[in-house]
Design goal:
Blueprint (H helix, E strand, L loop, with lengths): L2 H12 L52 E6 L4 H4 L5 H13 L4 E5 L13 E6 L7 H12 L3 E6 L4 H14 L6 E2 L5 H4 L7 E5 L2 E5 L4 E5 L2 E7 L4 H4 L8 E3 L1 H22 L21 E4 L11 H13 L9 E2 L11 E6 L7 H12 L3 E6 L4 H14 L4 E4 L28 E5 L2 E7 L4 H5 L11 H17 L1
Parallel strand pairs: 1-2, 1-3, 3-4, 4-9, 11-12, 11-13, 13-14, 14-17
Antiparallel strand pairs: 5-8, 6-7, 6-10, 8-9, 15-16, 16-17
Length: 479
């Protein structure tokens, strides 16, 4: 949207008599009238008595929209209210874009229920460092794991605020990383394409991708952090200092954040509720099992997926399987007795030279790797392809079409079904001396094995992903 179109957009939204930069107090979005509606029947003459007539001039206030966002009271008013009604204004703009009305309220964390059913999104913004006490941090963690979202926005791009927030989020989840969003992440395109936005750094304009960071629980970006200020843009103003987004792009980013969270609200509740298979007898010998590679690129987005896939493989083929999770740390675990490895993730696996060497020895020794890019992550796709070239540069890569035997036993798969429009076959196969050593899908399979769809992602349809997984295992174990 160009500057002229954006100006017209604002004028249409708030009236033609306002100047976006100076018609209201800096830090506040333009005032909005209380919503009023006239029912169609009010245009007709009053009903005969004893019904009590409505005066035709009366207006009815509609029911209040559901609460979607709670803006957290943190510190003094001067630190967290720089853009006082930023989130309220974003929701007003989003109502026009997505057609569904929501509201925001201010909340005190000491009095909050921490129930995502009550308020699905917590929004924290400030220029000053904010660190909740240990009890509050524990409640925030429970809230996130029950399906809630946490938005973190650095007012004026405050580095002190971001540094403090990153430190305490890291204490909440010391085993998880906060990653930059990749270029085909749902946050980048679930409604608006925001791969290129305008950024103001001390009033100097530049362009690039949005500087968003996410912490995943499963495949869901439960924490979304912006080191550049979004709030001033949502309130439709800017300042000649700090780091922030151009207002029109801040709004586009915010509407994508809202759209993403609305799509994930119900699925987020399922995190941690899917049971693992646990073997009573911890003996793997004589049974089929698969090790899942630990790495720093979000290695475990669907913890129950392999167990469920192996269970279905057993039901279909009669193979004896070991269903327990087997997490493989390439830095210390032996691969001597492991026939198959599985690797997935959203981000760059970043394996070390020693880990690459161990995987090369594993493949040359007769092992095989099954891999997929969780949610169709392009970052994982690109880096996994580079990784395999480093591990086994002699391997030849090909794409097996629907005529290959891998799509015929035990399940016949005649055509491919995805969560989005796609016609390409789902598998890339790396062979060495004519033997398949790596079978890789650039589309997500693991969430299908788990049986839980992921909104806005590039996935193989659930039932087909399950059949394809059984076929892949069967093919590798018999060839």
């Amino acid at each position: 949207m160009g500057k002229i179109k954006f100006a017209l957009f604002v004028l249409l939204m708030f009236g033609s008599g306002l100047n976006v930069c100076s018609a209201w107090e800096c830090g506040k979005a333009p005032p909005a009238k209380e919503p009023q509606r006239i029912k169609a029947g009010e245009a007709f003459p009053p009903l005969p008595l004893p019904a009590t007539p409505l005066r035709r001039s009366e207006r009815k206030n509609p029911p209040a929209p559901p609460i979607l966002v709670g803006k957290v009271i943190c510190g003094t008013n001067e630190s967290w209210t720089r853009a006082e009604n930023d989130i309220e204004n974003l929701l007003r703009l989003a109502t026009q874009r997505i057609g569904v009305a929501y509201q925001a309220i201010k909340i005190d964390l000491k009095r909050f229920s921490y129930d995502p059913e009550e308020i699905p999104i917590l929004y924290i913004t400030s220029v000053e460092p904010f660190v909740p006490d240990a009890d509050t941090m524990g409640k925030i963690k429970e809230y996130l794991e029950k399906g809630g979202f946490l938005w973190i926005n650095a007012s004026s791009g405050s580095q002190d605020f971001i540094r403090a927030m990153v430190e305490w989020v890291d204490r909440l989840y010391p085993d998880r990383n906060m990653y930059p969003v990749y270029n085909n992440h749902p946050l980048m395109n679930c409604l608006e394409d925001i791969n290129s936005v305008k950024i103001l750094k001390d009033n100097v304009m530049s362009s690039g991708g949005p500087n968003l960071r996410v912490l995943n629980l499963g495949c869901r970006a439960a924490v979304i952090l912006s080191p550049y200020d979004l709030g001033c843009g949502w309130a439709l103003h800017t300042h000649p200092w700090g780091w922030r987004y151009d207002p029109q792009d801040a709004i586009r980013i915010g509407i994508n954040m809202l759209t993403y969270c609305l799509g994930w609200i119900e699925f987020g509740k399922l995190f941690g509720m899917t049971p693992f298979y646990v073997e009573k007898i911890k003996k793997k010998e004589g049974r089929l099992y698969i090790g899942q590679i630990i790495h720093s690129g979000d290695w475990d987005p669907h913890p129950s997926a392999l167990g469920k896939l192996l269970r279905r493989t057993s039901e279909q083929t009669g193979a004896s399987v070991f269903l327990d999770r087997i997490a493989i740390d390439l830095k210390k675990d032996s691969l001597k007795d492991t026939p198959l490895l599985y690797i997935t993730g959203h981000f760059n696996p970043n394996l070390s030279d020693d880990e690459i060497k161990k995987l090369r020895e594993f493949l040359l020794g007769g092992g095989a790797i099954i891999a997929d890019a969780c949610c169709g992550s392009q970052e994982f796709v690109d880096n996994f392809r580079k990784l395999i070239k480093n591990i086994l540069p002699e391997a030849k890569v090909s794409i097996w079409d629907s005529n290959h035997n891998i799509y015929k036993v035990p399940f016949k798969i005649g055509e491919f079904h995805y969560s989005y429009p796609e016609k390409n076959p789902p598998l890339e196969v790396y062979t060495f001396r004519g033997i398949p050593v790596v079978i890789f899908s650039p589309y997500g399979m693991g969430s299908g094995w788990e049986g839980i769809p992921r909104p806005y992602t590039k996935e193989i349809e659930i039932e087909q992903a399950q059949k394809l997984g059984v076929n892949i295992i069967t093919y590798l174990m018999t060839n």
